[in-house]
Structure formats: C-alpha cells, structure tokens
Amino acid sequence: MQLGVVGLGRMGGNIVRRLMRAGHRCVVYDRDPAAVAALEKEGAAAAASLAALVAGLAPPRAVWVMLPAGEATERTVMDLAAAMQAGDIIVDGGNSFFKDAIRRAEALRPRGIRYLDVGTSGGIWGLERGYCLMIGGDEQTVAHLDPIFAALAPGAGAAAPTPGRAGRDPRAERGYVHCGPSGAGHFVKMVHNGIEYGLMQAYAEGFDILRNAAAAALPEAQRYRLNLPDIAEAWRRGSVIASWLLDLTAMALAEDEELAAYSGVVSDSGEGRWTVMAALEEAVPIQVLSAALYARFRSRTAHSFADRLLSAMRNKFGGHVEPAGGASHE
What we know:
8 strands; 8-stranded mixed β-sheet; 47% helix; alpha/beta
C-alpha cells in the first residue's frame, strides 16, 4: 500500500521505516530537507512540498500527519486538503486535542475528504516494538487503511490474548483499536497519557521514598542505604508493579543512580491538562491524575529526585529533552 507521511521527527521517521520494512511505499515531506534526504536514502520517495507529496500518490490518496498539536497540524491539514480530491484521506497521528479532530472532520466532510484521528503510542521505541494505535473515524476508512495500521502495530506476538476475549475484535489483540467516530481516537489517547502521568508519578515518588530511607533525620535503626538499581531490576521480575515504564526506570538508574544528568524540570505536552478538563466536564473525580499534573507544574520551581526520575522516564520512552534553562515548553 502507499502512504504519504508529513513530519519526520522522532516518531514520524520511524513510522516510515516500519512501513517500508513491511513493504509499503512511502512518500515523505518535512520542512527539514535533511530529514527527507535521510529517508530517501532508505527507500522512501521524497517530496519537496505538500503539493508534490499529494501529486506523488495515486487516488485514493492517504497522508499521515505526524506533527505537534496546534497550529502546525492545523495548517498542514488545511494545506493538504486544498491539494486533495474527494475520497482522499488525512490521518492525524499526533497528540491533537480531540475536539479539534471533531471540528476538522466536520470541516472536510462537505469536500468528500475523509479524516482519521489516530492516537499513537510507542515513542522512540516504535520502530522495533511497534505502535499502539487508537483510531477515530468512520469504519469504512479505517478498514481501507487496515494494512497500514496492522504494519505499524506490535502484532499478536507482543502479548498473549486476555482470557475470555473470544468473539471480540481481533485488532485489539494486535495492538490497534477502532475507538469510535471522529475524535474518539484522540480522546482515548488523551486519557492514556493522563494515566501515564499518574503511573510515572507513582514510580517517581516511590523511588524517592526508597532513596531517602537513609536520611539523617531518621533513627539510626530505621536508616536503610538501598540499592535502587538492584531493587528496580528485581521488581521487573514477577512483581505486580512490573511494566515497561519500570523497565525504563531500571535502565535510567543503572546508567546513573543519582540521575545527575537530569535537572528535574518536567514538561507537560497538553494531554494531562486535557484529561483534567474532560474529567471536569464529566464530573469524574481524578485525584491521582490531577495531582500528577500539578506535580509537573511544581517541578518547574523546585526539583526533587522524583522529578529527575520523571524526566529520565520521559527521555527514555519519548526522547524528551529537558527545556533549556529550566523553562517550561508545551
């Protein structure tokens, strides 16, 4: 199958590589010519502009946009739509706000251009591990692009099926799910990232308690000088709190138990805020997820070991680099 891809950053470039490994043809564009040239050497077809990318695809065209949420995605979607025809497809695979996905789908519908919102999880590891995909849009369009989603997803071998799933959608067992109509994919990914905030905060605070078990303020008999890398490594095996986030935590601690390379300034990219907003609209109490978001705000004025561990986890799964000078970046 053929696919255009716009945005060849940490995830976009590897999405192209994974698709090409599966035999799909990719036409690629990025504002950075070097990013385009690198993938052209690996077999992708290069486009010098959005219009050239659309022209390089056969109808019905499908273009995957992998850009930061907000103006960059908005402008690109509209510019692509101007060059497209009825029946063509635009996929937003970034972390856009779900209400923007609903609005864009409605705006493009009268022109016959189909729009899918795809929450994409996997970070910088997706090339090898695959990407968990949460898809919003109409079933016919989702089915048309099934070969693309199947190639990007981890596949059935990533985990054994949950007992009792007989008769349910087999796509979920391969790592991708059609969540519902427009906006549903980004809504599910938004909540996914809100949960991620809470899980990361729990690990970070727990290891901070372990690290401070040797504090001078404690009675001598209660002081423990604990080996955090070894504890994390043991927890990865058989523990009920084992997870990929714990794997990444163990990796960071093994590299440097003090995490000296991290200042502890922890950014948030929007999804945590949007999750809190959705909970307010639904009158759903989310004590843990909201507290995790507020902890990130606090990290920008005072930094703890827990904050350094949060920053280390973000770097390990997503390649997120702390903002220069401790400034907050959305």
